[in-house]
Amino acid sequence: MNEKERFSENLKRALIANGYEPKAVILEREFNLRYYGKGLSLHGVAKWLRGEAIPSLDKLRALSTWLKVDLTELVYDSTLRKLEENEKRKTPAKYYWESAASFQEQAVFEVYLSLPPAQRKIVREVIIAFHKARIK
């Protein structure tokens, strides 16, 4: 069994253990409610379930938190190390907002993170809509 297939089996096991059917439509909906980045497509999560792809580290972390499993229960240690190395190369630009944000903006973000997943999704969509309107 290769690492993608192992991830797929572990993901299915974690979904079932948390009361979810291991179906792409369910995984897509529930994951997107809890993930702060760009939402995933049905096709993307289906590739996870078929053992064709392993998500990026931020998505693995979201899965790990949501499904209450350790990252190493989803992927091999070696895979995790590779993903962490890739993230380290991207880190300076990724966390720029933390140093650029004012105290008030950081406080708003903390409140946002305390909201239930469905409300966070609505707030995220409103912010993205404002951004899209501004760049037109």
TrEMBL record:
HTH cro/C1-type domain location: 39-74
GO molecular function, one term: DNA binding
Coiled coil: none
InterPro entries, per database record: Cro/C1-type_HTH (IPR001387), Lambda_DNA-bd_dom_sf (IPR010982)
PROSITE patterns registered for this protein in UniProt: HTH_CROC1
Record-given protein name: HTH cro/C1-type domain-containing protein
Source organism of this protein record: Chelonobacter oris
